[in-house]
Amino acid sequence: MAEGEEAAVAKAEAEYFSKDFDWESLKQQVEKNPSYQFHLLPHLPSSSDEQREEETRDSKAWQSFHVRHSAGKFFKERRYLLKEFPELASSPKFSKVLEVGCGNGSSLIPVLRGNKNITVYACDCSSETLERVKEILSANLAAAALDRFVPFFCDFASTGFPGWLACHSCRGMAPQREHKSCSGVGEFQMTQMRGLSPLTEGGCCIGGVDFVTLIFTLSAVPHKLMPKSIKECFSVLKPGGILMFRDYGLYDMTMLRFEPDKRVGFREYMRGDGTRSYFFCLDTVRNLFQGAGFSEMELEYCCVKSENRRKGKIMKRVWVHGKFQKPML
Question: Coiled-coil segments, which residues (predicted)?
Answer without folding.
Answer: none
